[in-house]
Write a structure and sequence with these properties.
35% helix, 16% strand
């Protein structure tokens, strides 16, 4: 027999049950997936499981909505409302540039580390800049174009047959005019 006094157990206030699920609340989940492929369900489960969604079903939705980005890594935005997920693709500058190169989709199992040494036109750069405009920190479309050209340097493609660095210099010097909007 121990002589320890009995202390009544009280449940701490901060461990109470979470509040009731609000069906009107909208939550956004961002996932990076390879377009047109059903990714590993195990990577989706911890993100969307707590929201009451089936990871397998969402994985199929993502694969269906990323068909035109086949073989490219893209970021998807899942808008979850009332236990319904709507998938939209949020393309990055790099994936837009690689898509503009019109390369055949790569087979990830057989082909590793493809070189993107194609050529895109200045019109491609300006159209990509218009897509990326609202997510850019630049004030002008010319600034966004220079951001896209910098990404083109990293991707490794050329623009109008020359290095993207030279084109950035030409925009800075005023030799190439970028439309205002």
């Amino acid at each position: 027999q121990s002589s320890l006094p009995l202390i009544p157990f009280e449940e701490p206030k901060d461990l109470a049950m979470p509040p009731k699920f609000d069906p009107t609340a909208v939550s956004y989940v961002y996932v990076r997936v390879v377009g047109g492929e059903v990714g590993a369900v195990s990577s989706l489960a911890p993100k969307i499981g707590p929201l009451g969604l089936s990871p397998k079903k969402v994985g199929d939705d993502i694969a269906k909505n990323t068909q035109d980005w086949k073989g490219l890594k893209v970021t998807c935005q899942l808008k979850v409302q009332n236990r319904q997920a709507t998938v939209s693709v949020v393309p990055t500058a790099a994936s837009l540039i690689i898509k503009a190169l019109n390369e055949p989709p790569r087979d990830r199992k057989k082909e590793k580390g493809r070189q993107h040494n194609g050529n895109i036109t200045m019109d491609d750069v300006i159209s990509i800049a218009r897509i990326m405009r609202e997510r850019s920190i630049s004030r002008t479309l010319a600034g966004v174009c220079k951001e896209i050209l910098g990404t083109a340097v990293a991707v490794g493609c050329s623009v109008e047959g020359e290095s993207p660095r030279d084109i950035i210099q030409q925009i800075n010097d005023g030799e190439i005019n970028v439309p205002a909007e």
